[in-house]
Design brief:
A hairpin with a 2-residue loop joins strand 1 and strand 2. The radius of gyration is 26 Å and the shape is globular. By secondary structure, it is mostly helical. The chain has 2 domains: 35 residues, no CATH class; 183 residues, no CATH class. Strands 1-2 form a two-stranded antiparallel sheet. It contains 7 helices and 2 strands, in the order H-E-E-H-H-H-H-H-H. It starts with a helix and ends with a helix. Helix 2 packs across helix 3, helix 3 crosses helix 4 and helix 3 crosses helix 7.
Length: 250
């Protein structure tokens, strides 16, 4: 049965529109950026690309930006590895809990009861500053809060799974806001130092609360020492290294 003449133009129009929609859909279906060792690459020519970009400067081909998968995300170096965690447990067993607790209490200058809890909870993916307790181990008060993880007990660099999420544009934008706020606090010379430290703490806490486990959080400062430019993750790792070296002694 043929198409009636008065409907032919309608059919032709629908076919043309359908073809155009198909072409548009194919054009929008661009390949995603490719992640290798935590670095973004062009899916076409495999050259490195600028973070949060959508066009390769090398080959000129477009692509869609995408956060790296868990498998493609780099491992955190700021919490214990499986080997280190196993070594720590073996040394505590070899020394005995009493001796191990005393050593850590002396090395970290914390109460003996805090050292005991620290060694019981510290593990891979846990906060190195508080040992995963979530509290300030310099105090015996169980209601105190860790100055790095703010009570979660997790490593802020990886969020607990030892993988650092990269390519998160929201975290990137939030870090820019954080950095500007810290710079503003540094420039406010007429404001009392204690007030400025509190502002840096507020900015730090907010960024960690929203974006823990991202690359950007590895750059936040250890606010209790501000304006000393030491990061919270480095301070935490230094404490872990001290714990390991202290337990390693015969």
């Amino acid at each position: 049965m043929g198409i009636r003449p008065e409907y032919r133009w309608w059919v032709l129009t629908l076919v043309v529109v359908g073809v155009l929609l198909l072409i548009s859909a194919l054009a929008l279906d661009r390949p995603n950026v490719v992640w290798e060792d935590g670095v973004p690459h062009c899916p076409q020519c495999r050259s490195e690309v600028v973070s949060f970009s959508n066009l390769c400067k090398t080959c000129g081909e477009p692509y869609d930006w995408k956060v790296a998968s868990v498998e493609a995300s780099p491992l955190s170096r700021w919490s214990l590895t499986s080997l280190e965690a196993r070594f720590l447990r073996e040394r505590v067993d070899a020394l005995g809990a009493t001796v191990a607790n005393q050593r850590i209490a002396h090395a970290l200058q914390i109460p003996l009861v805090s050292a005991q809890v620290y060694l019981e909870t510290v593990d891979r993916g846990r906060c190195g500053w508080c040992g995963g307790t979530g509290r300030d181990v310099a105090q015996e008060d169980e209601d105190s809060t860790c100055a790095v993880c703010y009570g979660t007990g997790q490593c802020i660099a990886c969020g607990g799974d030892r993988r650092i999420r990269v390519g998160d544009e929201a975290a990137h934008d939030a870090y820019r806001t954080y950095r500007q706020g810290v710079e503003d606090a540094g420039a406010a010379r007429d404001v009392p130092h204690g007030v400025r430290v509190k502002e840096v703490e507020r900015l730090t806490k907010e960024l960690i609360r929203l974006h823990a486990g991202t690359l950007e959080v590895t750059q936040v400062l250890f606010w209790p020492e501000w304006p000393v430019p030491r990061t919270a993750v480095d301070v935490s790792r230094e404490r872990l290294d001290l714990v390991l070296s202290t337990l390693a002694k015969e």
